[in-house]
Amino acid sequence: MAEAKAAGPTGDRLIRVDMTAQTVKIVPYPDAWKLLGGRALSARILLEECSPKADPLGPDNVLVMAPGVMSGTAAPTSGRISIGGKSPLTHGIKEANAGGDPGQDLMKLGYRAIVVTGQPKDPSKRYGLEVAADGVKIVPADEYKGQWNYALCENLGKKYATASFITIGPAGERLLSGASVACTDGDARHPARHAARGGLGAVMGSKGLKFVSVDGGKRPVRRPSDMKSFMEYSKGFTRDYLAGPQMFAKGTSSVVPVAQMLHTFPTRNRTSGQFEHAASLDGARIIESFATRGGGMHNCMTGCIVKCSNVVHDRDGKYKTSALEFETLTLLGANCGIASWEDVADLDRLCDEIGVDTIETGAAIAVYMDSGGMEFGDAEGAKRILKEIAEGTELGKAIGNGALAIGKKRKHHRIPVVKGQALPAWDPRPLKATGVTYATSPMGADHTAGLIVNPGLPVDQYARASQESQIVNAACDSSGFCQFLQPTIAEIAKYYSLLYGIDVTAEQVADMGWQCLADEWAFNDGAGFTAADDDLPACIREEGIGPNGVMKFDVPAGIIAAAKVKMPYRSELYAIKATG
Q1: Which fold has domain 262-422?
Q2: Per-residue pLDDT tens digits for 169-186
Q3: Which of 8, 141, 320, 370 is 20 to 30 A distant from 534 in Cα terms?
Q4: Is residue 46 a contact partner of residue 93, using CB atoms and an 8 Å limit?
């Protein structure tokens, strides 16, 4: 099969894969993109190389796998990877971010991104991409066709003893718009870290790619220009973080009580913001299980100091899933009327196995329930539906294609989506600045785009708060740092300066964050998006939640539009922490 030999560890490089011609090329990384990584790099490549009018599942779409700038270094919690492409769910630009080890391993080998174009002439064929120190090659992978992610990674591990993996499950192979891309974490190589949102697993499936193996061998971490200063800064950064509140020490599942209190714990397809069984979904129940079942908190990628990922075991003490996070507990739990965290853990494992986004899938099942397809709270029915996604039944395909698809099929009136993508857990009716982010983000409704948990924020601050949070989070997703590490723009700039031995200012990093957004908006404009797409659905504007149903998303269109007009930077911007 097609193979490209590495020319040695001299400078950063790009891997370009043409699945139509079955060729691989390793090319020098453009110096002009030196400070771009992750989301910002993906946006630039897509804007320059992918037609916004392209069929998301056709040969002209471009799939980008781009680690962040700091991935592969000794900086703490810095190894995340961005998967990008034109979304089959939103039909606009999409980036989904994941932890695990592939981002670290790619950067240790000097690869700044994998860019995949074309698609096999025979759509029934499956291929793998082997990435190692001595080269990159496309290999046949028909033997893995249809395999679920955990079995797939176990089988791949027998062949690639020291590699990390990027994979898709049956949903990606079936080209379903809710399909995710899995990345493996740790020595166990569980495919539990997902670039989940936007259906990028279907884009990978359309390229005929079942897996990417990345073998970093014994390559050391990337060496910064000023090693001594870099390590000193990293030690101080780590010390200060560990001495702080560590708000994610027990995982994101621990915020369930806060969301419940704020009426932003969506229940029964967002007809309420509070769930009467919220206590049974509280992450405290998961923590309690560690004493008798094992499991515990761990880091999803090498060098992580946050350790927000909970490893969940079943009643027999056997591994079930990781991590069972707030978004999943909300969308597959309360939003479906399912009260047991144990049932949600089963659903989470199934989503990871077949390769679908837990947010989109939870929203889709809730719409199906709300439209009379099944009763709210039917956990076993939800599990059956997930298995139907893998089987490709008519209902399975409708659910696997997301909330909008099943909503249209059922002719239901309550479909909580923006730009075709389901709203995440944090409800925008009590958190209206977050609603502005959902409306204006190029990605569609996405909590990682710029979450603002401040229910008392004045109306005249919604647009600025959203814009600033979007800039900070875009910069973070471009850096390779995890949003839960909560780096500021000033801290990212300091790391860039020490890595490259040049003076990178906070304003430069903020400019890169803004330019990332501008590139993404430009792509969407080319795809045909208009200001009318920058809004929340009628069910969120018109249906109230909270005491006496008074909480509605009533933000004027002018304030929403203002979030997309660049405002002068405030000095406070550089100290705002990334939030996801």
Answers
A1: 1.10.569
A2: 999 999 999 999 999 998
A3: 370
A4: yes
